[in-house]
Structures are given as structure tokens and as C-alpha cells.
Amino acid sequence: MYKVLFTGCTFNEVKILELLKQAGLAIIPASSDLTESELKEALQDCDAVIVNGNEYYTSDVLSNCPKLKVIQFFGIGYEKCVEVETANKYRKIISNTPKVNSYSVAEFALGLIFALNQKILQYDQETRTGIWEEKTFFDLKNKTVGIVGMGNIGTHFANIVYNAFHTNILFCDIVDKADQEKAFNTKATSLNNLLKESDIVSLHVPLNNDTQNMINEEKLSLMKKDAYLINTARAEVVDANALFLALKNNKIAGCAFDGFYKEPVDLNSNEAKLLTLPIGKFVLTPHTGYNATDAIGRMEKMCIENLLHIFNNQECKGIVNKYFSNEL
Fold first, then answer.
1. How much is the average pLDDT of 38-55?
2. Helical segments of 171-262, H only
């Protein structure tokens, strides 16, 4: 029997926990806000952890839980809880749940477009205070949507806006995407050209040394003044100060983020000045685009499959630190 700590546990039925125990996994539910000392204590007798909380796995934590073998992230962005180099040092396998919530994030990106373009947040706030004022917006039909990063999420997003709204698709990616070019009747282009030509720019890239602050003052200056920027990738892909000035000075029409530079938001941080902009100019949601009930079920299933594959020395496609893949 393998013991698995599950922070922010989403299993809430006794029968599910019993079925997992029969499969060889004893799930131990834990809160999502464990302190470092609480985390170290909770992990002492655990073979794995499913991370759905706010904890971070430092060298101090990992060096004090010798039995722990697997850090299974509940979602994709494992970077928020552990560094690969640290995990490698203490021989801990990191795994995540790639692709299972991609469609949910793509739909959420569309929702952010509607929130900005259709002025939904402003309407709600104003009508509650007695203001009854109509504002203009544009139809998505025949507009140009620029997609930065045509991976799983970007491709789902393109499918939605291309087929449902008959938009023109532009995209850029570091990998050849011949299938997507054919599917969306387009050609890959440069980031600069995409920013110049798009009415909506949607970011779907991982955060790394090449993408951090890739949308900076220079890039924002290329965008149309009536264009919107959608970011369901990491906040750090966009330079916060440059974005604030672009929005404040009406260089672009608006921006929406799912997730922020520090989560939860530190209202005393420099980045938090984005939240002082008028309602609807900058829309922020709490890193929740993946959180569709359908996607949660798929993530639960893949987390369990990953752990069973790893513990049974079977191939596991969810492993992040490929350093360990050959050991299974």
C-alpha cells in the first residue's frame, strides 16, 4: 500500500477513496495551505504527494522526506511548486497532467475576450448603481486573432474561434505546425507581424528564459489601439510595467490575465498597480481557467494513473524530469 498526501484534495466521496485503496493507493487528504513545517511532518510516511495546494517543495522539505518518491502536480504548471533541479538532486520524480485541461483553458480564454470586448464587467457594475449606459463592441466574425504558441491549448482555442466565429487566424510558434496551417487556412508568421495585424492576441506559451517578458514595451507598441491582449499563460510572459503604461495611455484597448505575478495578489507589489486601472481595462481571474468540473475529473484520473504507472515501473508520459524515465 502506497501512502499519497493530497493537498487541496478534490476527492470528496468515501467510496472513491476506498476504491483507490483497493488499487493500492491510500489517499491522505490535506489542506491547501500547509506551512513548510506542517508539510514536512505530513510527508514523513508518504510515498507520493498530489499537489493542489500553495506549498513549495524546497531543498529543506525534500531533504527531510526520504520516503517520498513522486511529486504529482494537479495540473500542468508544476513550476509553481518545485524546481526540476531540486527534485533531481533529491531523486524525486515530478509528474503532471498534460493536455487534460487544455480545452477548458481554451474556452476560458474565449470567456476573457467576451468580458473585455462586450464590456460585461463594466455593465454589471454600472447597472447595479443605477447607470444605464450602452457601449459599443465589435463582432468576432472576420476579425483577426493572433495566437502566440500553437500547442494543445492554442490549437483548441484556434479551433473554437475559427470554426465558431469565422475569424482569421495568425500564429507564431517555435515548432513547425503544418497541420494547424492547413486546418486554419493560414501560415505561421513572426511575432511582430502577428502583433501588428491582430485584433485579439492570445498567449499560450510556457514560461522560460525565452518567454519571460517577451511581451514588453516594444512589442506592445506594435499592437492596434483597439486590440485586446489575452493571457492564460504565466503572468511573467508580459512585462507588468510596460503593460500598465500601455493600458493607462490607451495604447491597447484592454487586457485579461488568468493568474498573476504573485498568487494570491500582493496588493503592495509594483505589479498590483494594474488593479488600479478602470474596471474592464484590466481583467484578472485567479488562475482558474483549468478548473472546469470536466477537467478536474480528467486530472484526478491522470494523477492516479501516473502514480500507479510509476509505482509499477511502467511507462508514464506525465513525468517531467525525463532524467527518471529510463528507470521505470
1. 97
2. 178-183, 191-197, 217-220, 240-248
What's the rounded Cα separation, in Å, for the pair 144 and 147?
10
Question: For the chain, what is the mean pLDDT?
Answer: 95
**pLDDT tens, 79-138?**
889 999 999 999 999 999 999 999 999 999 999 999 999 999 999 999 999 999 999 999
Question: Cα 181–183–184 angle (5° rounding)?
Answer: 70
Fold category of 2-98+292-327 in CATH: Rossmann fold (3.40.50)
Query: What is the model's pTM?
Result: 0.84
- Indicate which residue of 41, 218, 263, 327 is catalytic: 263
Which one, of 230, 150, 221, 228, lies nearest residue 188 by Cα? Answer: 150
Report domain extents, the chain: 2-98+292-327, 102-285
271, 287, 298, 300: the active-site residue: 287
Q: All 3 cell numbers of residue 164?
A: 465558431
As a whole number of angstroms, the distance between CA 131 and CA 115 comes to 18
Instruction: Establish whether domains 2-98+292-327 and 102-285 are of one fold.
Output: yes
Distance of CA 107 to the CA centre of its chain: 13
Binned at pLDDT 50, 70 and 90, residue 140 comes out as very high
Could you tell me the CA-to-CA distances from 312 to 8, 24, 48, 276, 316 in Å, in that order? 25, 11, 13, 52, 10
Instruction: Identify the bridge partners of residue 169 per DSSP, sorted by sequence position.
Output: 145
User: Residues 234, 236, 298, 300: which is the catalytic one?
Assistant: 234
pLDDT computed for residue 326 by the predictor: 53
Give the DSSP H/E element, type plus range, for residue 26. strand 25-30
Mean pLDDT of 54-81: 95
Q: Give the class (CATH, top level) of 102-285.
A: alpha beta
Instruction: Give ∠ CA 287-289-294 in degrees, rounded to 5.
Output: 130
pLDDT of residue 262: 93
Q: Is 263 in the active site?
A: yes
Look at residue 250 in the predicted model and tell me its pLDDT.
97
DSSP element (H, E) containing 14 = helix 14-22
